[in-house]
Amino acid sequence: MGKGLSCREAFCRELAELGRKNPEIVALTSDAKGSTALGVFANALPDQFIEVGIAEQNEIGMAAGLAAVGKRPYVCAPASFLSARALEQIKVDVAYSRMNVKILAVSGGISYGPLGMSHHSTHDVAALRAIPGIRIVLPCDEAETVALLRELEAGDEPAYIRVGKAAMPIIYGPEAELTVGKASRLRPGSDLTIIACGEMVHPAVEASEQLAGEGVSAQVLDMHTLSPLDEEAILAAAEIGPIITIEEHSVNGGLGASAARLTAANRPTSMRTLGLPDAGNAVAGPSGEVFRHYGLDRDGLCRAARELMKAK
């Protein structure tokens, strides 16, 4: 698989195209035009761009106010700050008030790996999934980012789009048809299922291919939407057999915890939930090194699959 754009670059390029067609689209950022890749939008549409400064709470409140008068605001800022500093505003001003605010949360997970836990965003899905009224989307590559953005822009629901920082391997073609709230099956399989989201989709595909060479047929589901969750796809996977979930997020409250709760209540099956551990001294460093340390890569997935198949 070749490398494409980062999801943040793909998002902001597409947002600029959408903004040219619709002057009601407005982009806001909190001194993060560079890290969000929003420069392409700001340069092309300066009258539709608002620089708030380092004030994420104000940024969300301003976006909600713009939505209340008919604008279509997009907030673009680092995930770690939006989902912590501005959580109250997201909860009250956006989700509970049902304001049409779309939030691009960049450098999610451990994209800012060397900067440590203050800049890691490994709690955001758990926090936001507990708040009704906001969609949560984690695309895995540029084509998926664009496809999901177009669908989200066509609607009036609040949304949180969490992306990483690096250029991503190409998973989908440019004409990919994806639906918010519906998982995408990337590989068929009859022995077990790997369910992944965001940057973990690529290692899930790699693991499926390696396992095929070992005689293990591993289905791969791209669970790009965490709210609403595609419960039907998860329960169908449980019918096949064991499930492995993998996410760039805490093992508490994210994809794995949600899938385990669902299967335990409706269709119990063996599971492994791969994610970042519940630890106060999490490893800091380049994201690739942190992924390898915690088994959030092809090799970690293959180990988990072999263990599950051995116990099956």
Fold topology:
Layout: E1 3-6, H1 7-21, E2 25-29, H2 39-44, E3 49-51, H3 56-68, E4 72-78, H4 79-82, H5 87-96, E5 102-106, H6 124-129, E6 135-137, H7 142-154, E7 159-162, E8 167-169, E9 184-187, E10 192-196, H8 201-213, E11 218-222, E12 225-227, H9 231-240, E13 243-250, H10 255-266, E14 271-276, H11 287-293, H12 298-311
Parallel strand pairs: 2-3, 2-4, 4-5, 5-7, 6-7, 10-11, 10-13, 13-14
Antiparallel strand pairs: 1-8, 6-12, 9-11
Helix pairs in contact: 1-7, 3-5, 8-12, 9-10
**Which strands sit side by side, in order, in the main sheet?**
3-2-4-5-7-6-12
Order of H and E elements:
EHEHEHEHHEHEHEEEEHEEHEHEHH
> What is the number of beta strands?
14
Helix content: 25-40%
Tell me the major beta sheet: 7 strands, mixed
Number of domains: 2
CATH superfamily of the largest domain: Thiamin diphosphate (ThDP)-binding fold, Pyr/PP domains
Describe the structure using short key phrases.
Rossmann fold, 39% helix, 21% strand, alpha/beta, 5-stranded mixed beta sheet
Structure description:
- The chain is of the alpha/beta class and 312 residues long.
- It has 2 domains: 167 residues, Rossmann fold (3-Layer(aba) Sandwich); 128 residues, 3-Layer(aba) Sandwich (Rossmann fold), CATH 3.40.50.
- The chain contains 12 helices and 14 strands.
- A 7-stranded mixed sheet has the order 3-2-4-5-7-6-12, with helices on both faces.
- α3 packs parallel to α5 and α8 packs across α12.
- The longest helix is centred in the N-terminal third of the chain and has 15 residues.
- It is globular and about 60 Å long.
- The model has no long low-confidence stretch (mean pLDDT 95).
